[in-house]
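target protein:
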Amino acid sequence: MELDIVELSRLQFAMTAMYHFLFVPLTLGLSILVAIMETVYVMTGRPIWRQMTKFWGTLFGINFVLGVATGITMEFQFGMNWSYYSHYVGDIFGAPLAIEGLMAFFMEATFVGLFFFGWEKLSRTAHLVVTWLVAIGSNFSALWILIANGWMQNPVGAEFNPLSMRMEMTSFFEVMFNEVAQAKFVHTVSAGYVTASVFVLGVSAWYMLRGQHFELARRSIAVAAAFGLASAFSVVILGDESGYNATHSQKMKLAAIEGMWETQPAPAEFTLLGLPDQEARETKYAVHVPYVMGLIGTRSLTTEIPGIDDLVAQAETRVRSGIVAYDALMQIREAKGNVSDEVKATFEDHSKDLGFAFLLKRYVDDPRLATEEQIVKASNDTVPTVWPLFWSFRLMVALGFSFIVVLGYFFVVANWKGMQFPRWALRLGVAIIPAPWIAAELGWFTAEFGRQPWTVDGVLPTAMSVSHLSVADLAITLAGFVAFYTVLFIIEMGLMIKYIKKGPYMDVTESQEWQRKHELRLQSSGDTAPIPAE
């Protein structure tokens, strides 16, 4: 029954997180794209760029509201569904979330109102500053959330207090500049930039296929293709950096993604395709690319990457060490800290493995009473289910490289004088709109599912983190969340489609004023060139 509670709690959080992440990437990317468009408007004064800013800003606003509505629920879930986790690591995990709420969220929430209602109240420069503050606030929000998540993947800057039975922060600097968190931040926001770029490109391509809003669509494609191409390269580069970090901090995740059961001689091969068989502990019909995994994972040709079987053997050693730590911990708690220096030293020597002893609580209340069979089971539990990780990672990577190709093509055509977009390319631009969301969801799945069985890697197992809830409580709330979030998603899709079909609004007065000023400039310079169409 406890396992049912764990799985339902995981399913509920996964559902809310992945629903929420339908909105986050577009918010991150559109905020920057809108700021870029308004910057061009302020620099040139051309009304078409104000029209673009307002149009794409409207779609940003719809998405932003739905993102906020779905994101708030997730933070409450830490108290509702993961109360022991909140108790155990709240001193560390809560700090970046609090900063995100106090600094980033209030910043973007305040200035987003000025963005929509300040067009006639603020000067052009002041409104541009507001737009950039919205974009910066949105990205700062992602930063602090990913610092919290990065700590779960690589728990640095903290230590366990045996008297309070909690993790306590020892260095906020280490938590903030955690290498895993920083790589995840840039990788994630870059993926959001690609998502928004493909969205803008696809909608603009749809307008061009229908022969509507040509000037807005052409300029939007030019901006989205340039910004998206640079972001797509960043996604690939930072994805590679995440793989390198995993070699140090999450070796089991990396081995599972590769379907690598046995340690290979350096440099390791990259498995391009295959069929992982967890029962047989092999990847069948594997197609290998020599050297690539060694270069990605170690940046060298001489360092080996451990396979799953060797990592399980290491985990068994750490489980046994953790049992020693658990025994010393119980003595410290029973004596309220008044124990011999020998007991304290024993705990200090083995405390880094305490989390592995907690893996045994799935099978026995007191890890010290675990049988050899239970120790072996707990060691094998450190292996996540391989085939979903194997295939989700490869599909994500394939999509990532496809974005480079597509955005690169649109970038070249948009900037090559005299070239026009063929209809097949415009249709392709429309067809790939959902692809970045698929890639982003696959990325989150790979990162979070690959961490199992840990909530905090090597520190706190997922099975220990949950609240004491009934299966009925979880099933009812899960169904409620699915229904509510589905309604929100339908509402968002309806609003987005409505405003895309409606198209941009042109401020006729400003357009006429700009054309009059432009004509006067031409006359004063003696130039008789026609006024460009807006």
